[in-house]
Description:
Catalytic activity: (R)-carnitine + hexadecanoyl-CoA = O-hexadecanoyl-(R)-carnitine + CoA
InterPro entries: Carn_acyl_trans (IPR000542), CAT-like_dom_sf (IPR023213), Cho/carn_acyl_trans (IPR039551), Cho/carn_acyl_trans_2 (IPR042231)
Number of domains: 3
Strand order of the largest sheet: 11-5-4-8-9-10-1-16
EC number: 2.3.1.21
GO molecular function: carnitine O-palmitoyltransferase activity
Pathway: Lipid metabolism; fatty acid beta-oxidation
Structural class: alpha+beta
Number of strands: 18
Amino acid sequence: MYMHSDPSMGLIAKIQQHLPLSLHSSLSSQGQNIVSALAFSTLLWLSLILVLRMCLKLLLSYHQWMFEKHGRISNMTKVWVTLVRLLSSRKPLLYSYQTSLPHLPVPAIKDTLRRYLESVRPLLTDEDFKRMTELAEKFESNLGNRLQRYLKLKALWATNYVSDWWEEYIYLRSRSPIMVNSNYYGMDFLYVTPTPVQAARAGNTITALLLYRRKLNREELNPSRVPGTVIPLCAAQCERMFNTTRTPGDESDVLQHWQDSEFVAVYHKGRYFRLWVYHAGRLLSPREIEYQIQRILDDISPSQPGEHNLGALTAGDRIPWSRMRKQYFSSGVNKRSLDAIEKAAFFVTLDDEDKGMKGDDPTGNLDRYAKSLLHGKCYDRWFDKSFSIVIFKNGKNGLNAEHSWADAPTVAHLWEYTLATDAFHLGYTEDGHCKGEVDRSLPQPQRLCWDIPSEVQTQVSSSLAVAQALADDVDCYVFPFRDFGKGQIKKLRVSPDAFIQIGLQLAYYRDRGGFCLTYEASMTRLFREGRTETVRSCSSESSAFVKGVENGETEEQCRCLFRLASDRHQTLYRMAMTGAGIDRHLFCLYVVSKYLGIESPFLKEVLSEPWRLSTSQTPVQQMELFDLKNHPDFISLGGGFGPVADDGYGVSYIIVGEDMINFHVSSKHSCSETDSHRFGAQISKALQDIMHLLSADCKTLSSSIGCVGHGSTQTEPKKRL
């Protein structure tokens, strides 16, 4: 109005013409102009936001940067990075990028089948490979394309064409025990226990977890990114971290999530308590939570009939637990007590045993520590909760997490924050107690009451027997590999993950005399609501390297084969991350075929193949929280999981700092062909042999550089290098 110009190019005047008659009669001409300008500017603002989000979504759909060699970045990628930085928020909230993340693409069926056949080539004889190739070709030409069309239709309206089916059919519909088979664990520091006082450790741990929840609710956590880049990762899995429980059903379980609860559920010596962690609207101090926990520890009241082993219902088969829950826990005192557990922020077990590495048998102690976190006594954990923390008598702690709501990196992020906040920010007094003052007028922790009939007690005993047999069969071996770490591996210009995965192939070959289908978990969180994809680590290239080493090929040939295997593994990992994997696509095609009631011999055979070597790396995502230079003993042990196949191994590893790799190996005693300790020794030997092989190449190279004649220029050694 004052500049006598119209930046809207006549749109404000158009809006003014279409204003309601009531506004025309009640507003002056100047007032009508202001209302029209406000309407225009609001529409312009919303349009700009949508355009910026669409542009960022298009930019984040570009993944070629991941396949470029280190130090050789193309001009297109440089421009792309600049544009991503310009369109990204300077101080983004946790969920700021969610609507800008691209959707997971559906790969071409021809490409998936080709990659599948390449992955099984080293595992099959010529005759079996020919048969599988014929099955694949028949599937592609007939049923495959029809299933693909249905899958593409789903991808048009679904946020992620995999995740909902993956959650339902892989996790929630499983009727076998989730203890060991699905749940996984996380450990405390390896060398350090911040306090030997059980109640104090519980106080700081619970406080740290609740501080994380506060940050999560306020979106104050930084969005996760691909390490070393500005590329955001999906944060959808964080939404159901707290106040979440998996409730059993006859055919399928259900994940239930509630609004923030102001209490946690606590188990101690066969008794359940509700512990309020807020009082008069404020979060209790660590010292006050310690005070309340100590009250529970000092309570000498006995457990009620049927209460002591009640948690075994969550450790056994799902159908009996579902029926008991419907019949005996849907009303009255049992429902109120069960609600207190299921609606709690999380579950806390105050264990009456000492755990950790210290003692006369450090190796055996670590193994027992892992088994305790994985399954405990089978009745002293509530395996349905999104996660449960365990505080041992000597101050050690740990975590057991249910798998359906999120994958390990999400829980690892929470656990890193908890350990760092506990040790470095909250701290303890000189005598090992939490800091802060205590309001001694706090109400007592509330004891939960139960009315457990004999039918439920009979089922509890039955579920406990099933769970106990499963727990006794698990063979765990946890060991820190200290010979070298990622620092020395990177000096050889090799990906640490590729180095370890090839080492696992060599170790398995020596242990079992052959190769097997190998599962390495990769994330697909570059896409909205992405979860995981499988990297089939046993490739033709890795098999050729292993055979070369075992058949006595020359060191030069073995080094060449290793480089090919390493490059191939990195390519497979990048393809899995960028939506070009194999297994999730085939899984979804199989689900479509089941919906249509059509049998596919090819898909049935593919999805029935056992994963005898299941592996996963636990990433360290917040190294800045741990000052390893000044506090080198504060090293995390990572976590692990049970074996996927009855005759196979589960291997989890975490690369800590520059000089250590911690391994968690699991198998089953019932299989005479597997032994976790034997396989662990083979892993150590394989890694040492590969390092010796590659280091010899560096020594030879250094020697040749040192022999350059006096007449050479100074640039010649660099050229040779």
